[in-house]
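Suppose a classmate hands you a notebook page containing two proteins, each written out with its sequence and a corresponding row of structure tokens. How would you begin to make sense of it? This section walks through that situation. The first entry is reproduced here exactly as it would appear on such a page.
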Amino acid sequence: MTNPSFGLIFASTQKSFGLVMVGLLAIAGVAFFWMNSRSARPELGAELELAPNRKQYYDDEDLEGKVLDRVLLMALVFVAILAVGLPTYWLAEPGRQSNAIENNEGDDGVFANRGKALYAGSDAGGLGCADCHGSAGQGGVRQHIILTDEGEFQAQVEWMAPALNTATLRFDDDELRFILNYGRPGTPMAAWGAPGGGPLTTQQIDDILRYLHVIERDPDDLKAEVQEEVDRSLEAGEFDSLGEAVFNYGLYSGKDSGTYSCGRCHTTGWSYSDPGPDGGGGTTGFSLRGGGLLDRFPSVASHFDFVAQGSEDGIGYGVGGQGTGRMPSFENTLTEEMIEAVVEYERGL
């Protein structure tokens, strides 16, 4: 593996070497022009007396001797410079490539910094992602207007915007790109990408994705914090079981904007603290009531896998289910015990 620091120094040295070569070639060209001008014979009188094409030139002995030798020697020198200089210059190409990748794609690279600038709040010249999802992607609250099916005003609510510092733990890049491009209908999340009618180019969407990877949290630390909040909610008497506490994570405390709960997608009104029956109605996710859940997942194992791994676009799950990629993976945010408990809870709804 190329040492980035060494590669950077080496690439810089080769750049300087290349500039010196260019300078030497320029000097050699000027010297050649000057010497050629000096060797020209002065014209005698007017053109009528002796036209340039009539003046005496080198005789055959000089032309095929010292003149030819001089020209061939100069050609040999230039060939030697190219033969030695170009391989030496390109010797550092692997280092330059490595540094280019790090400079562009690294955590502090060009793309990540562009994504950070786009993510920033509107008051900082960004798109305003931070206004909803928090300055560090920790989640936040957004004012949102609920409309009826006829498009009439129903209510203005405070919608919990999910944390994005764990988005890359829950979705793969293609799924996140889809969300950024097309938004989440029925929520404050608008379509930002050009395919969905938004203002951002493909490169800008990828820049934001690169930044989301930079702020990604450690899964083990996250699971410990989620466990702490779940334990707190149970001790406070907010819920009757572990499964119910996980399903409704953050409902009363607003912790992490309820990002790791099931209710925010499967319970109508959950995201703005006005939930209906647990698992009822459905929003982004389908309703978990009415027997459909058990028909889709006859076995606990298939249900567990769906919660742990999420869905993939076009890939089947359960009985007759086909994934869209909207169901996130929870194996990086919840412990196996939590997933087992929430599966048991959902199967009892």
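The notebook's second entry, a different protein, reads as follows.
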Amino acid sequence: MLNEKQRIAKIIARSGICSRRDAEKLILERRVKLNNEIITTPAIQVTDNDIIEVDNIKIPKIKKTKAWICHKPAGYITTSHDPQNRKTIFELCPKDFPRVVTIGRLDINTEGLIIFTNDGELARLLELPKTGLLRIYKVRVFRRINDNDLKRIRSCPTVDGVKYNIESVDIVSQTSSNTWLKIAIKEGKNREIRNILSYFNIKINRLIRLSYGPFQLGNINKGEIVEIPNHILNKQILLIKKHSTKI
């Protein structure tokens, strides 16, 4: 399992239970045992001889990293449990699907690419702002957009104390009453595109994520889940890690 000591939260994440951040929360909530003793700090190094339990259940052995692309339809939320009993994207998974976490969230009304993985550490890598992965969206708005509108959107406004950073925005097509925009962002702050356009009184009626870093939605149908071939996934992970070390 392990050739050297590694932080316990990282190992919990790599087992596919959750992300490293969530693993740290579990530890602080006293829900993790190491060798039958409750621990309260994530700053602990472990080896393959240690027994790790979450909620009194031994964590799974670390499996080969896998990832899948899901085409999330509108009307689904990006969580495993919802107190309001709304549909979740995990309901799209086949019954024999492995335990996975998501990479990148989308709000209930947003469609498009969501990545599933059985490796919480991979999820952390791809979500870190310093990794700098570009997210590209296609956005339909209820009006014609002119050059002044584009200039304002590109200005990267501060909305309710939050500074937003748009990498690019371009017009894809227009009719007399609607415009399709292509917008690229990197950090992926909560409801970032919706908040920016709302700030300029531009109403969105459709928002679709087309890509997340090197991973593309392509022609995947709504509600469909497609595994990323292992050789492609491994190649992209290496490239992403190499890029992130240069930032």
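A careful reader of the second entry would note: The chain has a mean pLDDT of 90.
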